[in-house]
Amino acid sequence: MNLDKPVVVQKFGGTSVKNPRRIKNVAEIIYSKVKKGYHVVAVVSAPGDTTDRLVDMANKITSCPTEREMDVLLSTGEMQGMAFVAMALNEIGCKAVSLTGSQVGILTSSAHSRARIKSIDAKKIYDSLARGEVAIVAGFQGVSEDDNITTLGRGGSDLSAVAIASVLKAKVCEIYTDVDGVYSSDPSVVKGAKKIDSITYDEMLELASAGANVMQSRSMEVAKKHKVKLHIKSSLKREEKGGTVVMEETEKTDEAKGLEDVFIRGVTLDEDQVRISIERVPDKPGVAAKIFGVLARDGINVDMIIQSSAYSSGVNDISFTIGHSRIDEARRILQEIKDEIGAKEIIIDEKVDKVSIVGIGMKSHAGVAARMFEVLSKKSINIEMISTSEIKISCVVSAKKGKEAVRELHNEFCE
Amino acid sequence: MNLDKPVVVQKFGGTSVKNPRRIKNVAEIIYSKVKKGYHVVAVVSAPGDTTDRLVDMANKITSCPTEREMDVLLSTGEMQGMAFVAMALNEIGCKAVSLTGSQVGILTSSAHSRARIKSIDAKKIYDSLARGEVAIVAGFQGVSEDDNITTLGRGGSDLSAVAIASVLKAKVCEIYTDVDGVYSSDPSVVKGAKKIDSITYDEMLELASAGANVMQSRSMEVAKKHKVKLHIKSSLKREEKGGTVVMEETEKTDEAKGLEDVFIRGVTLDEDQVRISIERVPDKPGVAAKIFGVLARDGINVDMIIQSSAYSSGVNDISFTIGHSRIDEARRILQEIKDEIGAKEIIIDEKVDKVSIVGIGMKSHAGVAARMFEVLSKKSINIEMISTSEIKISCVVSAKKGKEAVRELHNEFCE
């Protein structure tokens, strides 16, 4: 369908619609975009603590709420949010209609509480835009082929917004949050942290998975795959510029000016790390597969994995990191297979952090890693594990030294 | 579709599902019916004050909420109620699924906030029952032909239940409330008020419109039209008997035993009455049409209407009653047409009550009216207006005397 104006998708999270004042503010943001000559589709989350309150109530009724019914229940939060925003828009003279996931035709798999989007019909959205209305769409929800209400899991509203932007070929998908963009490091840890004006999907993915929780990796991956340009910005600051743009290629030439060889986007700290070392495992095929197979079977996500090469000893040390919440299960599982794999010892260290530097072009500049290690060494920060990728170098260090490490690295690479 | 067991529809109001304890109680009521060998469809309202809270929130966002969006918003309350009840049933081992108005296919007119039910598809309900599940349906809501969410207005959940019971040819439609049935008078006014075991639709309609607010007239009319047997009972008392059955023909023979000529079901008091008298209107065609036409145009409901016959004077007195909430508008409207209709004076008396006696066979027993007037006369209660129907006699009396009148009439007819 052809529309007369370009389409912009705007996504507003729960804190952006948590009370009447914030809701009116969101309406103003949307209306000002409309007045600038765009068709706007707004994706709205559940207001404030609505979802938490519904979950609490469900837990008082049953210790194990049916997933299908939980989806029905939670979908009402986003419906309330979208109705409020539509009302606020109509109040200020901007025509708007709200649409549920089912009305929009967001067809998903039938896996309740973690459904995957299969397709979006979008006819209803087009019709609404063609009539000159703003379409307010409930985030986080969809409908399965057998007409059951589904939800998309954590970060689901971001995903709804990105998917809709992709289908509508939107000019940009604006993600409104309570921070004003992505920073080169956590401002609460690093005083000199700088807002990043533009960044690539890959760099953003690395920043996100390393703890810069502005947006879920899953939505970012979909945005990258479908080349949806993202603009992350604050719903509280009313400025057209500002925020962080995420796209395929950034104008590094402009920004990287003055830097010699490599451009470091940011330094991240991940404190939710536990290091597990399985020591002296016989060096034979299938051992690593066994270890990570049993962990995966229980849904334990493993982050970094290091295996030291065995030359002559015939034994390996295998180290990896997981999140704190699954320590007890991991310990039990590994004890069970310890004898089978012939491991000597299992050591668990809960007091570690992961610090990472992220930037494109790292791999072709070996000097970056050396500089990173030197910075840490100068401050007597011992490196326990190292892992590298195309655009990231991560080091596991003692939790006592995590924050200091981030500050020093930011000082070295981002000032 | 043929099911292997009879169907019962159960409707639970907002107070019946206002907290986890009550919700679990509702699940027990439903499950015990299932265990007795019935297919159960439960129609559920929004829990407790959910609807009020949503309306409050909307009013904080806009002084004039869009009706379409208000329907979207309010429909979430019933969705929450149904999801909670379905969870509670699954928890105790009774298979249940919740269904929205849209999922059930409750097709309505597109008049938001006061939609009329056009048809119910019911395939989803049948499928669910055939799989051995309890179908939990959101009350109060439907969907219009153009796929917009609609609501049915006040008493809408009763209406949903009655309509579904009709389509499914249910054995009975049980209406659960916080009272244990319909009484011969308001127990808070008349100490000796007695619960009525069974009553006809017409009698119930008269009791309801005269102020016995157990169920909205609209739902009762639909029940009468489609011969849906109703059973009004308390969700707090767990007894199979009890409550009040509403049906086409009651077993009066049993209950009326010992009464001589007429069976009075109940005595009602309606305190929301304002008497308006338009005095000395010329007796010419079109005057009454004019008066009640302008009132109707502004949606002012008129209850009793009395016009004294004009024999020789050539002028009439026209009196009628309305509810308190619309006095100011009625006064303004009538002043506007006063000269046009040639009325001498408009008198408004806010301090009146309406007392009524209700029972089948009244018209053929003229003595009943006389007995009623005598009872009031004996206590020096002046009758300001009288109106009679097939099954009801109503008198407007001074508000000071309303309660006393009800007690005396109950004493005369119901003891």
Describe this structure in words.
The structure is a homodimer of 415-residue chains. With 415 residues, chain A is an alpha/beta fold. Chain A has 2 domains: 7-178, Acetylglutamate kinase-like (Carbamate kinase, 3-Layer(aba) Sandwich), CATH 3.40.1160.10; 266-413, VC0802-like (2-Layer Sandwich), CATH 3.30.2130. Chain A contains 13 helices and 18 strands. Chain A has an 8-stranded mixed sheet, sandwiched between helices. The A-B interface holds A 20, 23-24, 54, 57-58, 60-66, 68-70, 72-73, 75-76, 79-80, 82-84, 86-88, 90-91, 97-98, 100, 102-103, 124, 147, 149 and B 20, 23-24, 54, 57-58, 60-66, 68-70, 72-73, 75-76, 79-80, 82-84, 86-88, 90-91, 97-98, 100, 102-103, 124, 147, 149.
